[in-house]
Amino acid sequence: MQPVFLGTGAPLLPRRLTSKRVRLESATRDGQQVQLVYSVAAS
Question: Could you report the per-residue pLDDT of 25-43, keeping only the tens digit for each?
């Protein structure tokens, strides 16, 4: 897993994101890394 940072622009997500709104959709291994795909429910 690698962190990803967005340099500029509007925030992608609200500052507070509770676990009730986030769902892990898939986890794929690629060598020593893993790709995690999440969905976020509307507030």
Answer: 999 998 998 888 888 888 7
Q: List 26's β-bridge partners, or say none.
A: 37
DSSP 3-state of 38: strand
21 CA to centre of own chain: 12
Provide the total of helices (H) and of strands (E) in the chain, helices listed first.
Answer: 0, 2
Question: What whole-number distance in Å separates Cα of residue 15 and Cα of residue 17?
Answer: 6
Residue 5 CA to its chain's centroid (Å): 11
Residue 35: name the closest of 12, 26, 22 by CA: 26
Please name which of 37, 15, 40 lies closest in space to residue 28, comparing C-alpha atoms: 37
